[in-house]
Design the sequence.
């Protein structure tokens, strides 16, 4: 009986082993891919990574860094908002610079007031005083002349009636009065002439220097309000009231690095694709007149024809992952820029990575406007 049980258990084990082997040998059916991988649409096409940017005739997306430092006091726009050139975007605390500017303005105004005072000379009141002094000196001279004449007349009649000392004093008093009249007359002419031309020139230089210092301070004050440099769209805004901004940008708590305070793009009727062609494939690029490309949106079956714009003729390390130099890899690439009309039924944004195939136009095919997306 016991042997039968052992045989039964062994038989059950064999059956289970065979069943397990059969089940494990079955391969799961491959799942249908959500989207087809990008396929080369050209006979001799070149594959490259691309990144979507706002379209402009030169450069990349517009990165805005403050020219001054300080805590942010106002954020006046939102990401995705369209703005015109000169629109205020962010303000930085300008209390110290504003006080400095006001001080320099007061100094310039004081220098101007002093310059106006010099140019307005002679002052009527000063001229009246000088004229009165001249009249007084004339009267004093007349009195001295009369006294001297009387002394001399008395001396001629009777030399003993007037001492020689009194006669000399009378004559000296006349000469003193005459000299005093000459002095006050010259003082009158000096007052009448107004300010010295060299004093005016010196004050003009003082006013010019202080005015320029005020203008420079005012120009620096305006930099505490960051404005849109062009018409465009705010793509990224690393600003919050109370956070600190500097010419290095703003601190990003996620990447733990400094990033541009604001990134702007041009109005997005068209977008650009900056395609990075590996340096070992550069020699296979078609001539500019024949170059075209197709962009494949990752995660979809959508492909979009691209129109060639220009080549940025500088091979550099590929750093598109984070736009930071410390992420260099052992790949050097040549940027080639294409453009396309933004599809109305598809969300595509600057900064998005795409797959691109670059090829040559077939003979006889003329360049035309960028076509829409195809699926």
Sequence:
């Amino acid at each position: 009986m016991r042997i039968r049980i052992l045989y039964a258990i062994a038989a059950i084990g064999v059956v289970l082993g065979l069943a397990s082997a059969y089940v494990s040998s079955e391969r799961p059916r491959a799942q249908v891919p959500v989207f087809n991988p990008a396929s080369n649409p050209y006979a001799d096409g070149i594959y490259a990574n691309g990144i979507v940017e706002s379209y402009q005739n030169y450069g990349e997306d517009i990165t805005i860094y403050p020219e001054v430092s300080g805590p942010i006091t106002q954020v006046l726009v939102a990401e995705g908002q369209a703005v015109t050139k000169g629109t205020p975007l962010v303000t930085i605390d300008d209390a110290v610079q504003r006080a400095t500017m006001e001080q320099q303005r007061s100094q310039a105004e004081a220098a101007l007031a002093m310059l106006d005072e010099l140019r307005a000379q002679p002052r009527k009141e000063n001229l009246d005083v000088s004229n009165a002094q001249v009249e007084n000196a004339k009267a004093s001279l007349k009195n001295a002349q009369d006294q001297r004449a009387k002394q001399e007349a008395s001396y001629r009649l009777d030399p003993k009636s007037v001492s020689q000392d009194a006669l000399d004093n009378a004559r000296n008093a006349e000469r003193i009065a005459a000299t005093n009249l000459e002095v006050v007359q010259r003082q009158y002419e000096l007052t009448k002439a107004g300010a010295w031309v060299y004093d005016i020139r010196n004050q003009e230089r003082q006013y010019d220097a202080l005015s320029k210092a005020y203008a420079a301070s005012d120009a620096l004050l305006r930099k505490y309000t960051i404005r849109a440099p062009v018409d465009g769209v705010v793509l990224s805004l690393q600003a919050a009231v109370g956070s600190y901004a500097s010419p290095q940008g703003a601190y990003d708590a996620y990447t733990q690095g400094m990033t541009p305070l604001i990134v702007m793009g041009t109005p997005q009727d068209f977008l650009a694709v900056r395609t990075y062609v590996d340096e070992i494939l550069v020699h296979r690029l078609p001539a500019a007149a024949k170059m075209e490309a197709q962009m494949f949106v990752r995660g979809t079956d959508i492909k979009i024809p691209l129109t060639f714009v220009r080549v940025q003729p500088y091979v550099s390390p590929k750093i598109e992952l984070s736009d930071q130099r410390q992420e260099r890899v052992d790949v050097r690439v040549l940027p080639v820029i294409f453009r396309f009309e933004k599809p109305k039924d598809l969300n595509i944004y600057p900064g998005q990575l795409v797959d691109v195939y670059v090829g040559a136009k077939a003979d006889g095919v003329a360049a035309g406007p960028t076509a829409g997306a195809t699926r």
About this structure: The chain has five helices and 17 strands. Residues 122-194 form one domain.
